[in-house]
Amino acid sequence: MTDQTSELLYMRAKLRLPGGVNSPVRAYQAVGRTPRFIQSAKGSHITDVDGNEMIDYVCSWGPGILGHADSRVIEKVKAACEEGLTFGAPTEREVEMAELLAQLVPSMEVSRLVSSGTEATMSAIRVARGYTKRDKIIKFRGCYHGHSDGLLVKAGSAALTTSVPDSAGVPADFTRHTLVAEYNSPDSVKALFEAYPDEIAAIIVEPVAANMGVVPPADGFLEFLREITKHYGALFIFDEVITGFRLALGGAQEYFHITPDLSTFGKIIGGGMPVGAYGGREDIMRMVSPDGPVYQAGTLSGNPIATAAGLATLRILEADTDIYMRLQENTAMLADAVRHAAGNRVHVNQIGSLMSIFFTGEDVTDYDSATTADTKAYADYFGFMLDHGIYVAPSQFESMFVSDAHTDADIQKTIHVMQEYFAE
Ligand SMILES: *Cc1c(COP(=O)(O)O)cnc(C)c1O
Question: How many DSSP H helices and E strands does the chain contain?
């Protein structure tokens, strides 16, 4: 324990870090509280520097599917550290990782390791453009694919023709080729292909949207995207940075029986260390340097410590065939309890170990319905949960993540606090 408190650390942090944080959502701006500075975490529990021990449903935004500091993973990381932190030269574990990926996710015939989800999506899009020799891409409103320039867009006033940067510092020219469609709306995609039949390199999608809160795909939506991309000679990219190894061992593509051309991974694949990967069909991936003309590189890519953590995590998931059933059951129990306690004051979306409680009476099926949620009501709920030892996302538009370290007692305690909140 340090003698610091979150209040004091936050005051110091704000002087030297924008918003006092290194990634915006951590600043708790959406919920009007002081962020908790974390001391340590083990299993399903996270402890802040103030000495509060909480049940954690953020799980570092997804990587922590086994819970925190799993001893089997930590052991492998320690052993890897003893052998050296980085060499900038190929190592055996990178080969093992690419082989395991191809085995667990058959569409990943050839892959390239990177160090974040942002790099994975940015690079996959570059490959898709290089392969198709086309410039435009389609993304969906409310889907997040990291913070590269071309992906920080929102629809302009004439959505069919213009996208505008969604961040200062992104030149309008850099988002000119990013077309924005509506999640779960085949018509919006059709219209873009009809307007630009020979110019669209790829569609990128979160197969389960999880960055506008959790919004599962409507029946037939992913199949439709698979068909229309094929029809127009565009590639289909699954951004599985959240869904990979979480919805199923083979990700959303196994869960929904869809084969994308390219996929991107992050979060769980690093087991808590910075790793990302992109890959897919061999003929497409041979475009990547040094086999082909699409340049992409990384000093720390395939880092020996990060691949040790990632491989250990994936091997544990692979060996435990019941894990996805347990995660689904525990998360469904939480979802049912909230629906029962809150009635039509909220709409709960849940699929596998992903879940969102939207503070709206409407069904949430896309970006428009997600944003009907009352963020002030969410902030109130968040504060109550935090004060009662339950650590959930400090934003209405993030997922709850359930890990395999969450015990029956954790789930029951969480349900009890939720019931208490909604009874008031
Ligand atoms: C988190 C996330 C990313 C970006 O990953 P980083 O490692 O944060 O760069 C990309 N796509 C999706 C779907 C994500 O949830």
Answer: 14, 16
Q: What is the pLDDT of residues 9-38, one digit of tens each?
A: 999 999 999 999 999 999 999 999 999 999
Is pLDDT of 159 > 60?
Answer: no
Q: Which two tokens stand for residue 421?
A: 């909140």
Is the Cβ atom of 270 under 6 angstroms away from ligand 1? no
Residues in the chain: 424
183 is catalytic: no
Catalytic residue among 57, 267, 381, 410: 267
Tally of CB atoms within 10 A around 283: 11
Indicate if 239 belongs to the active site. yes
Ligand 1 mean position, distance from CA 25 (Å): 13
Complete domains list, the chain, with CATH: 6-69+321-423 (3.90.1150.10), 71-319 (3.40.640.10)
How far, in Å, CA of 201 to CA of 132, rounded? 6
pTM for this model (two decimals): 0.97
Is there a contact between 327 and 352 (Cβ–Cβ < 8 Å)?
yes
| Residue to substitute in 247, 267, 303 for testing ligand 1 pocket (most ligand atoms within 8 angstroms of CB) | 267
